[in-house]
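Researcher: Structure for this, please.
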Amino acid sequence: QVQLVESGGGLVQAGGSLRLRCAASRGISKINSMAWYRQAPGKQREWVAEISGDSIDYADFVTGRFTVSRDNAKTTIYLQMSSLKPEDTAVYFCNRARSGSIWYPWGQGTQVTVSS
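Model: Predicted structure, token format:
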């Protein structure tokens, strides 16, 4: 069974940066497509960004501030977050891209907290 592991979250001041990491501990040998999602307290999980093949896409609320990338071995994807805002505070998860057909089991996510 696929197991996704997110890491890299933390507490940062507004305007700061963090780099999140997503890796599959088992079940996926190469990551061709994957997306980042986030869930803030009391809110529904929302799509943030994704890399699918050579295509990259972002939600409007992170465009210009976040960058998604993948390592050359296609075993890890990253989310570089800059100019962070308090409203970016959420637990961040990785999972299938929007074009995918099957959801992987959700990982624990990584908490990002942005203080004002």
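Researcher: Any notable elements?
Model: The first strand starts at residue 3 and ends at 7. The beta strands are 3-7, 10-13, 18-26, 33-39, 46-52, 55-58, 66-70, 76-81, 90-95, 110-115.
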